[in-house]
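[agent] plan:
  1. take the single chain provided in the ticket
  2. run structure prediction with default settings
  3. attach structure tokens to the ticket
  4. add a short note for the reviewer (M.T.)
[agent] executing step 1
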Amino acid sequence: SLSAPLAAFGYSALQAAGDIEALQLAMQTTMQDAGRTVGEAKAELDELRKAALAPGLDFEQAVKGSVRLQNVGYRAEEAREILVQLANAVAMSGGSAQELDGVTRQFGQMISKGRILQEDLTIIQENMPSITKAMNDAFGTASAEKLREMGVNAQEFVAGVTKQLSLLPRVEGGIKNSLVNLRVEFTSFLAGVGTEIDKAFNLKKVADDIGKNLR
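[agent] step 2 finished; step 3 output follows
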């Protein structure tokens, strides 16, 4: 009666450990490509974990968003500041990390293209309505065409709206945010258990051996 639940718990723990490890490796690889150290990557993960306690952001999306922004030229610290301001703005409209993911994805695409396109702005506005006011305050317009006519590039656009979003009041965490943080903490606990299981049974070697026998 206990073996099935224990097996399910062990599988969940290993899966959580694998997910966390993947995020850690993504951050380490990204920062090492930028000439940073593994120690700096670990420190940045800790800072993102703290930032993710705020509404509108969770740890997984914080890491993914940071990696996404670093891959288009931002330093890790700059990426984290952008994420903090975007997350607060998303939370102001009742959004969550899912909406934030959509915003950072469009920011990354916008910078990669090197142009501000209305199709990107539309998706950003759907996920973060407050960006319209931030654009008007920063540039006097919320039109992609007018921004291009003014010579505003994607990096200047991100810097301008981020500065305006930083002036917004901070959203207080409620029940929804507490549940998100609880889920993150439980996932971290599971990941710790999964890591210990992996150490005890050397599952990588077991999997490799099984793979060799199947060939």
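[agent] step 4 note for reviewer: The chain has a mean pLDDT of 86.
[agent] ticket updated
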